[in-house]
Design goal:
The chain is α/β, with parallel strands linked by helices. It has three domains: 272 residues, Rossmann fold; 122 residues, Pre-protein croslinking domain of SecA; 183 residues, 3-Layer(aba) Sandwich (Rossmann fold), CATH 3.40.50. Helix content is 50%, strand content 14%. The protein is built from 27 helices and 21 strands. The longest helix has 40 residues.
Length: 672
């Protein structure tokens, strides 16, 4: 397994002392991420990345997998006792020779037979190819329904046999617990231990679970526990100092109760979601600090912002979601705050408070960016549509949004520890993962994580039929078209999955379908408690399911034979997302494992993607031209949407890179 190198450390030579200190060092240590490449180095690194991503050696992988399957066939007739003996010998040899390829292949062949005997699942060549790719420290792009759960389980066992802790990260706690329970018979037969951690796991049980060979959990839980350990140590960058203190000051003065057992190997399921979409999302451990002066200022800012006029007092950049005060606006603000408390007298501070008040009015949309539950404001993940109850906006923005909605403002918080997912994953010695949609971001995976993307062919040919994208002049006509398409398809008996970008859209569409006399299931952040039941039943004959992006990952949509005979699941996208990966995830819900299925997108000139990223003068021209729609007009609009998606993805990439560079600069220059 290709590991990243770390600096050597020197300790006294007494064996018992060395073992104790070395164990502590590996528990606390992690890789110090290298700075991102810049200038000419970046160009050369990008060329190398393109070469790596395009020299995927499919024939070599195919031949190697065939050899593994041949070995596995020879194990069918041996007894359980003999198989156990082989496993005992293999685990010892793999610890001594972790890079020995023939040993690895022999171990994987044994796992094929063990999986068959313990789980009743004999891995396909596609799954074994995925295991090889993961072992090489790469990202395996496996289509939905190709058996990623078993692939990851096999790869985690091989990592565990090498004697290092292996963390498997899933999309949510339910999946972590489910997958760990599914893989437990296999893992235990392989002389390893396995456990899962969710947000409800108490600290002592977490500590015991992290000591196991394989731990299934979520990125949020793992990173939060890492930050807690960092706070406990007070210097998470110097594990050597802790080990030396323990050696020379005595165990009583230096023993620290930590949760984690090191950052050695991590396998990330749905890797594009964590490593790309949520890359710059910071996980913060904070403490509430009452600040009545700030709350009064935020409240007053709402009143002042209401009197400011766009164009005269401030300008708006929809593409970058930015608000800037004009010279006249700054002057009017200074006059309006002349008699207010001292907090308003610093120009930079008062302008920031006002920008926050304007930002929440202009860019934050209820039921798209957040929902109101009782007297609490809960943020929504734009990529998945899921609730983020434990997250809040920073720099007073969250309080400004609460007061704008008429809610009691929560006290501001003081940050105790902070880390982004992007930086955290760069700390692991061995990073790999699996995703159904990774190739679009292959350049970023390589640039940021040194992670090549390896597409893996499907076990059966994809039978999905893509209907032509339909273009409409405005949203109202688009929704009429969506409803007509649903009604028409429903008459055939085929199940329909409709994807929307916001909670509000899903609710409004459901109401209009009910008026048509149709029965629908709704899956969004407000109605998420029965997610597994709703998604698993979305393949029933005549079923209509309306869902935000949260239906794109995790739970399989199972089709009956009768449903397959009708043509399988039909997927409708009511709006394109900023990332083409999100669209592919939705379309990938149909035609799994060679099943029949179809998909279609509906777009309009009033969609957010078009309005934000297409230049205004082009929007005006296209709006006039679409009065006479035709194939050429539809082609042009689709090209403009493609341009918009590329622009949006480029801006998001630049933002993530800028935040990572800023984090690196702060650490290098502010580390005391």
């Amino acid at each position: 397994m290709a590991d990243r190198k770390e600096g050597a450390s020197i300790f006294p030579t007494e064996p018992a002392v060395v073992n104790r200190v070395t164990n502590d060092y590996h528990r606390l240590n992690f890789i110090t991420p290298k700075p991102l490449h810049t200038g000419l180095d970046r160009m050369v690194h990008a060329v190398v990345g393109r070469s790596v991503n395009h020299s995927r050696r499919p024939a070599l992988l195919k031949n190697r997998v065939q050899g593994i399957l041949t070995q596995a066939e020879g194990l069918r007739a041996i007894s359980d006792a003999r198989l156990d003996e082989i496993i005992r010998n293999l685990t010892t040899e793999l610890r001594l020779h972790p890079g020995n390829e023939p040993l690895f292949d022999q171990g994987l062949a044994c796992l094929v037979e063990i999986a068959d005997r313990t789980l009743g699942m004999r891995p396909y060549p596609v799954q074994l190819t995925g295991v090889l790719v993961i072992n090489q420290g790469q990202l395996a792009e496996m289509a939905t329904g190709e058996g990623k759960t078993l692939t990851i389980g096999l790869a985690s066992v091989l990592a565990g046999w090498r004697g290092r802790p292996c963390h498997v990260l899933t999309a949510n706690g339910y999946l972590a617990q489910r997958d760990a329970e599914t893989m437990a018979p296999l893992v235990q037969r392989c002389r390893l231990t396995i456990g899962s951690i969710t947000d409800e796991t108490p600290p002592e049980e977490r500590r015991r679970t992290y000591a196991m060979s394989i731990v299934y959990t979520t990125s949020k839980d793992l990173m939060a526990d890492f930050l807690k350990d960092s706070l406990t140590l007070r210097q998470n960058r110097q594990p050597q100092r802790h080990a030396i203190n323990k050696l020379f000051m005595g165990a009583a003065s230096a023993d620290i109760s930590l949760l984690l057992n090191g950052l050695a190997t991590v396998i990330v399921d749905e890797a594009d979601s964590l490593l790309i979409d949520e890359a710059v999302t910071p996980l913060i451990i904070s403490a509430k600090r009452e600040n009545p002066d700030l709350m009064d200022a935020i409240r007053q800012a709402g009143v002042i912002a209401h009197g400011l006029v766009a164009g005269r007092d401030f300008t708006v950049n929809d593409r970058y979601r930015e608000v800037r005060l004009t010279a006249l606006g700054e002057q009017r603000l200074e006059q309006a705050t002349a008699t207010l408390p001292p907090l308003w007298q610093a120009p930079g501070r008062r302008e920031e408070i006002i920008r926050n008040a304007l930002t929440v009015r202009l860019f934050f949309k209820r039921d798209q960016h957040y929902v109101i539950q009782g007297d609490k404001l809960v943020l929504l993940d734009e990529f998945t549509g899921r609730l983020m109850a434990d997250r809040s906006l920073s720099a007073g923005l969250h309080q400004a949004l609460e007061l704008f909605e008429g809610l009691p403002g929560t006290p501001p918080t003081e940050t105790m520890a902070r880390l982004t997912f992007q930086k955290f994953f760069r700390m692991f010695r061995h990073l790999s993962g699996v995703s159904g949609t990774a190739r679009e971001a292959s350049g970023e995976f390589w640039h940021v994580y040194n992670l090549p993307v390896q597409p893996i062919p499907t076990h059966k040919p994809v039978a999905r039929v893509m209907f032509p994208t339909l273009v409409f002049a405005n949203k109202e006509k688009k929704w009429d078209g969506v409803i007509a398409a649903i009604v028409g398809m429903h008459q055939t008996g085929r199940p329909i999955l409709v994807g929307t970008r916001s909670v509000d859209d899903s609710e409004n569409l459901a109401q209009r379908l009910v008026v048509q006399g149709l029965t629908v299931e709704i899956l969004n952040a407000v109605r998420h408690k029965e997610e597994a039941r709703i998604v698993s039943g979305a393949g029933d004959i005549g079923r209509i399911t309306i869902a935000t992006n949260m239906a794109g990952r995790g739970t399989d949509i199972t089709l009956t034979d009768a449903c397959k005979a009708l043509g399988g699941l039909h997927v409708i996208a009511t709006e394109l997302n900023e990332s083409t990966r999100i669209d592919r995830q939705l379309f990938g819900r149909c035609s799994r494992q060679g099943d029949r299925g179809s998909a279609q997108a509906f777009i309009s000139l009033e969609d957010e993607l078009f309005v934000r990223f297409v230049p205004k003068f082009i929007q005006a021209i296209v709006t006039l031209m679409i009065k006479n729609p035709g194939p050429k007009m539809s082609w042009l609009v689709q090209k403009l949407f493609t341009f918009s998606q590329r622009k949006a993805q480029k801006l998001a990439y630049q933002r993530r890179e800028a935040i990572l560079r800023a984090d690196t600069w702060l650490e290098e220059n502010m580390n005391l």
